[in-house]
Structures are given as structure tokens and as C-alpha cells.
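Question (not urgent): is this output format expected?
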Amino acid sequence: MSIEPSLNGVFGIEGTPDTIPFFDYLINRLNEYDLAYLHLSEPFTDVSDIEFLESNIAKHYRPIYNGNLMINNQFDRETGNKVIEEGHADLVAYGRLFISNPDLAHRFKLKAETADWNMETFYTQGREGYTDYPTLEKEKAKN
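Got this back:
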């Protein structure tokens, strides 16, 4: 079992004086459970000027949470490896990058270029945007 709280709320929410202390308390209490991992997201927008929101989720919560910590949002191969090497997370989730690169692990291993995603096809019905991205080998075969 795992859990994924939304620490920075939804877009446009600026938090309250209790926001960070509440999540500090919640995540500390999660240490009492044998979770497979805790999945947190870095902010989707710049929140560094918002007093009651945390702008560096992994760095802030790694000292609080003792179990496996997964982080996501806007990571590429280099930044994902860096957050793990610095000890701020144990795992990195690659949502958008994985959708547009069905062979993402292979591309990372080869240090190959990754394909861009098309946000207009996300969360729509049908296959476009989810099953039509080529693998690296198919891209090479086309060229």
C-alpha cells in the first residue's frame, strides 16, 4: 500500500498558516505504517513566493519520512538521478515523460534523447497520445 497526498493543494490555493505544519505532522505519522512508498509531487507551478506552501517537497520531507519516498513532476534523467543521489528521494516517477517515451528506461540507459509529449492528447478518449509514441528503434528506422 502507498499514499499520495497533495501537499500544495490545487492550482490557485495559497495555503494557510497550518498547511506545512499539518503535512509535517501527517507525513511523520505515516512512519507508523508499513507503506511500500510515499508518493509526493513537487509543485506544478512556482510557489516560492507563497508563504504557506513548500517549494522543495522532496528536500523538506525526506528528513521527516523514514520509508521509501517517491517524488515526481518535471524530472528528466539528470534531475531524477540528482534528487536520488542527493538523498532527497528513493524513487522518481516520470508521468508525462513516460507517456511520450514507452521505452523510457532504455532511453535513459543509452542516454538517448527523449520524445516530447503532446498535452492536447492527455486525458482524452481514444489511443492518440497514449499508444502512438514510437520507441527509439522505430524512430531510428523512420530516419
